[in-house]
Amino acid sequence: MEVETQPAPTEAEAAMEVETQPAPTEAAEAADAAEAATQPAGDAEKPAEEKKKDPPAYQDAFELEYTPDWPEQMKTKMEEAKIAKILDQLKGKGGGKGRGPPGKPEPVRVFGKDGTSYDFSWEGENPALEPVPAEDNFPLRVEERFKKARGKPKDPNAPIKPKNGFQKVTGEARARLKEERPELAMDLKAMGAALKEEWEKVPQEEKDRLQEIYDKEMEVFRPLWAAYKETDSYKEYCDVKQVWLDGREKKKLFKAHAKQAPKKPRSGYGIFSGEIRERVKTEVMARGGGMGDIGVQISEEWAAVPEVKKAEYAEQAQREKEEFAVKWEAHKETDIFKKFMTDKAKMEGRHKLKQLERTTFKTAPAKPKSSFALFKTKFMPEVMAENKGAAAGEISKKVGEKWKNTPAEERAPFEAEAATLKEKYLVDLKKFKCQKAYTKFLVQRQITNSRTNRAVLLREAPKKAKSVFALYRDAHKEEVPSGKGEGKGMSWVKAKYAEADQTEKQQIEAMQKELTEKYQEQVKAWKEGETYKEWLKNEEKYKREMRNEAMKVMTLKFLDTAPPQPPKTAFSVFVSEKRKAANSDGEPPAKRSRKDAKEEVAKFQEEFKKLDKDLKSEYEDRRKELVKEWQALAKEYMEKPIWKEYMEEAKLLKVPVKSLLANKVQSIKKLKNGTKILPLPEKPEDVPIKPPGAYKLFVRVKKQEVDDVSKLPDLWAAASAEEKKPFETEAGQLLNQYQEAVKAFNQSEAGREFIKKMKFVRKSRTIAMAKDKYTTTLPKKPLGATKLFMKAKLKEAKKANPEMKNFELQKLVMDQWAALDDEGKKPFQEQAAEAESKYQDTMAKWKESDEYKSYTSMIQKASGSGGGPAAPKRPDSYPSKPLDAFKAFCKEQAGQGKALPKLAEEFKELDAETKARFQSEATERQKKYQEEMIAWAKSDEGKKYNSAVKAFSKRKRLAMAKTKYLKDVPKKPVRADQIFFAEKRSEVMKENPELKGLGPVMTKLGELWKNLSEEDRKPYKDQAAEKMQEYDKAMAEFKSSANYKKYEAIARGAKPKAKAKAKASSSGPKPPDNYPKKPQKAMGLFMQENKGGGDLKAQLAAWRDLKAEGQKKYVDQAKEAMKQYEKDMEEFKESAEGKKYLRLKEASEKKGKLDKAKKLYLEGEGVPKAPKPPLNAYQMFVAEKRPSMTGEMAQVAKELSRLWGEMDGGEERKALEAKAKELQEQYQKDLKAYKESDGYKKYMAVSRGIKNKPPPAAKKPAKPKKAPKAKATKAKKEAKPKGKAKAKAKAKAAASGSDSDVMGSDSDSDSDSSDSD
């Protein structure tokens, strides 16, 4: 049989023919030469254990018969034995994927090195090898031209690389050595050594000649190769090569796992082959056969094995298969298999990402050459000519030295060209990233990353419980008839399940329910683990990466020139300072490898972890300063024209401008329900910054003096009080300045505006979060009758009137609704009423849920109620407020789609009779409502509700007053033990690392304080006393402020007074229900009748338009009402209830005048204040001892009384009594001076005038009063105690010096200044 051959290559082509290599460089050529010295260039046979598969038969034939060494136009016959062997092998391949059934092979296409393709086809039993026409579309399996059975893929379109001298010599010697020494064919190392010896035998003259030929050929090859790299064929080749590399990596991973996994079971043929392989191998090798002959003989012997024996092998194979299945299930639970699956998922994700990048970035612009690369391209031939025979690395080094020695003016053209290329590259890159292909790449990248993340981290997630049907199927799997179709397999299971007993189904349902509950518990527990959290973290990372990159594409052309981002963490600032310190000599840092950089960062991380909280906050403060500087630069950048252009595009694409500035790729935060979270307002430039404490000031000073900042906490702890004092003093001064600056800022316009914005944003955020968190089950409000009609008819109207716009269609449908009669509206109204009823029921249930309570609580906090109790809920029996005339009119017009202004206009234009009807009906409803309200207010439920409303109003008013007026109240200082705790806490935690949490540490500190002696406690008590004095002074100043007085005024009105001292408020007593109400004037009657006729200005104009004639009606009505009012008032004054009310009113008016006089003469600026009554001896004793005592109030009081009684006659008690007497004498002097002041005298004069008392007479000598004496005697007799009561009476008497309150009182003890009559 003959075949057509291809013409043999010419001598020049033969010299240029080499296997295609990807992108050779000078360095690669040097590496090839070094490799060639130890390893033969040609292909060698691999050992049998490494050769898992033989290449396809058609490729064997092709590689054997079609070689480039054929003479031109020569035809050769294929040996009949070879043809028969190829045919048998091809026929044996039938029946696979893409082929026909066994024994019926289809044509197979093969490719030559020159790119031509050929088909093996059959006519009867005769195979033929024919060329394929170029336009022929092969319908079956087509081999890619790059694909070979083994080895790296090669591109036939690539220029053939010339062979060097070594490759030419050893290529010719390889075939000769295989014939002379056959053992070398199986020993690569020995073959390499033999080829090296052959090369060493070549004379040096011949080597030089071969090298000269190679250099000339390479001069031709290099430009061809450079041009080839710009072709699409090269890019396709790189793609195919990467696929091959990925496949090799996958094969390597599977192979490594196979060594650790259970060995796969053998087939019957495999078992038989293993038994006879060694014998057959020996026999074949003795005959001079090869590895293929071994397989042929084993196949022949297997064909001769009896069927009974084959069945035994099949049974053995089945047993091995069953054993393998058990081992494999066990293996799947091992860490080895889990690691393999994780590595496999990661590898597949990585390969997919590489493929995405290859396919997407085919059209991306190539990175431009640098100035050195341009220089190298120009001068490389010159350097190579000067250094013939030098290695590629040496030549590159020479070019680098030449570049360094080139003057700046000669470098300038290359640098200019490189800059031009880079500028063009950036423009092309922007265009590329704005293409849809790049956006698609971003989406696919996110999908791939998400799938990989799921495969890696969610593989061990709990498996969902099987359904009832699946459990039933598993329970009866042994009964299922094999096969497919009705009555077999799944069909049989479904029929069996349909006929199953209900009891069995219930048992399986119970089992399924139990499994589901177990699954839910497992999921809940698994979600608390680190794996799930890592999965969530990665998912968010990939979404953020996608979001950020997408926003980068839009902002690329605008934000390239924006100020660089500041450090994002305190650690970044720490690393920056460390690196600056390491390069303090001013020289640029030396280049480091990635490994060295990682090690350096890890070292810095360990150092940073050792720093204490204050030191870390110091770096955080520095970071904030850098952020502030960056914000100033960003603000300046925003004033440029480019920013205006950017804002226009940002608005067009709906990208948040502020977020992009704060972080170039930051996205908007949204809640699950889609609600946007408002960003916090930007702080004004003059907002005060909290100053550093003493320790931070110490750190700033000492940081430059120590080599390791982690030593600073120990240095501070070891510092003496004198060494710490300068820092503490400076910190105190800075704190005072900061507090004053905060006060000034809060009072400034910018401060008030900032605080207002902050409150609004926080409120908005809280409300949004409350809705997102607690209204997931909130019932949706149903549609009304009008909207249901519109929903039903809008589509029909749109279909009938396609040219109309949406608002026109809505108007058309509303007109149809208005034209409907009651019968036509009834179905929609009933449907709406039914939906509303269901909604109200569902809403009532929801309002009883915990969700609603949490929601209302959160909303109240956001609204500024301070989280206190809610306003009392109106009882169901509370009378409903009636509709006025206008609202009643609107209710009648409901459902007609009229706007409120239109209804107001129609109501105004109503005729007098109709309007009078609405007004009279409204008056009747209002009258009835008032009667119901009066009756309801007198009921127990009404009284309880009104009382609750009144109490709530007072509490709310007081809370608002505290928020408004007490925000600057001085903070109460810490106690002595608290100062001790703060000082020793870090020391205790350091000495007792086993104490975890605040509770155990505080317990330990409490024990230490308890064991301290009075002498050791004294420094802390002195500090506490000093701070308390400062607090008292600040509190006294605060109490004299206007804000505190305003709060006091509100508090006095808000707090209910004691029942025993209850007095009428300055506003006067509440009028009784029968108190006559003053009637309205004429214009008021007109406005009430004309309600809904516009604002006050319009009503006034209408009143004037009436003139005297029109106004007469209302004037007469007002006169009649006034006469009736005067008559009712006279009757009220004569009644008992009226007399009581008028008496109380008169007393209230007097009280108001007295309060006004007191405020005018005794509370103004410059008026002396009434002296405060001093404490008596017992009260001073209590004030001294009480802070050191703990327990319930009653027990403490009892213990104090006992201690005071035991001090009777003691020195300490005498000292207290002497001090109390001294204070009382001073108080009497101050009180006398106070009463002689002008303000007090004026107040007393006004007081006597109001009370109608005569002025005091001239003072006479005091006479003894009998009544008080008798009274005192009586009191004395009554107070005479016996037994144990004696000590109590003494203590009580001692405690009753000037006030019953042991903590002192601010009230004035002077009876003349009392408010009572």
If you had to describe this structure to a student in words, what would you say it looks like?
With 1317 residues, the protein is mainly α. Helix content is 66%, strand content 2%. The chain is built from 51 helices and five strands. A three-stranded antiparallel sheet has the order 3-4-5, covered by helices on one side. Strands 1-2 form a two-stranded antiparallel sheet. A hairpin with a 2-residue loop joins strand 4 and strand 5. Helix 3 packs antiparallel against helix 4 and helix 21 packs across helix 23. It is extended, with a radius of gyration of 51 Å. The N terminus and C terminus are likely disordered.
Short note summarizing the structure:
The protein is built from 51 helices and five strands. The chain has 1317 residues and is an all-alpha fold.
